[in-house]
Amino acid sequence: MLNSDDGTRAIHDYWNSHTLGLQYVRDRGIEIGSRAFFDHIRPWMNPFKFPWIMERIARESERLQGRHLLEIGCGMGYDSLEFLRRGVRVTATDLTPNAVDMTRRHFEVEGVEAADVRVENVLRLGFDDDTFDAVWANGVIHHTGNMPLALREIHRVLKPGGRGILSHFYRKPSWMYALKQLPGVNTEFEDEDPPANEFLTEGEIEALFDGFEILEVAREHHRLLPVSRTGLKGFLYSYGLRPVYNVIPESLAKRIAYKYSVTALAVK
Fold first, then answer.
1. Given CA atoms 77, 83, 86, 90 in this order, what sign does their dihedral have?
2. pLDDT in tens, 245-267
3. Tell me: the pLDDT tens digits for 78-115?
4. Between 173 and 187, whose confidence is greater?
5. Beta carbons of 140 and 165 less than 8 angstroms apart
């Protein structure tokens, strides 16, 4: 599903070599893909890392019992696994074969079965129009390099009235956007950030939802959470920035929240 014309090759190569989750392995003797491995990194993975995401999964699962959800950017399958456990039919997709292989292994270890697990590019989805009752994407769309096209493809594959549950757009102004202006500060991996890593204003994010009825928006990640990083940067974050920042009054902290989430219905 790759095409050099849509600029996804560099994005694909980055994420295929930076499979999300591997950076959290602290026990170098652990077998990658084992139950112990998935248990070991679970606390640092969506949706366990962000409690509001688990709450959203639980809430949406009640609406989607027996219905078909497409996950864009499944990573190692933790979000899809929680939907499956709650009775939602899931097709899990990712741009990279390494992530898809890890998700298949994860589901095998957990004894669950998805409708499908496959490589897909959200900029050119291989599904018919009006296929899914919901699309879930958490921390993905801002890495695509073409956010308007990604939203159009999501709209296309949703049934009329289908739910687009799209979390963690990177927003500006925000505390992370301010940090990103400093040399050497990365939001994803310590060595380098992905080729596409867009920050938008709330207005710019909502403008992407042409053809949708926006039901709910939320500013999220307005408090600094624990990180697994070590070294000087990790120390300064954990014992300097985090405790100081987290005493900022809630009303002010919300104004500079890092992430913005949107739930919307496809209007057709």
1. negative
2. 888 898 988 999 999 999 999 99
3. 999 999 999 999 999 999 999 999 999 999 999 999 99
4. 173
5. no
**CA distance linking residue 11 with residue 23, whole number of Å:** 18
Q: Output the 3-class SS for the chain.
A: CCCHHHCHHHHHHHHHHCCCCHHHCCCCCCCCCCHHHHHHHHHHCCCCCCHHHHHHHHHHHHHCCCCEEEEECCCCCHHHHHHHHCCCEEEEEECCHHHHHHHHHHHHHHCCCCCEEEECCCCCCCCCCCCEEEEEEECCHHHCCCHHHHHHHHHHHEEEEEEEEEEEEEECCCHHHHHHCCCCCCCCCCCCCCCCCCEECHHHHHHCCCCEEEEEEEEECCCCCCCCCCHHHHHHHHHHHHHHHCCCCHHHHHHCCCEEEEEEEECC
Look at residue 174 and tell me whether its pLDDT is greater than 90.
yes
pLDDT over 60 (residue 5) = no
Check: CB of residue 2 under 8 Å from CB of residue 12: yes
The pLDDT value given to residue 41: 95
- Host domain of residue 85: 4-266
The CATH number of residue 118's host domain is 3.40.50.150
Q: Which is nearest to 219 in space by CA: 231, 243, 236, 201?
A: 201
Q: pTM of whole model > 0.85? A: yes
pLDDT computed for residue 7 by the predictor:
67
* Count of domains observed in the chain: 1
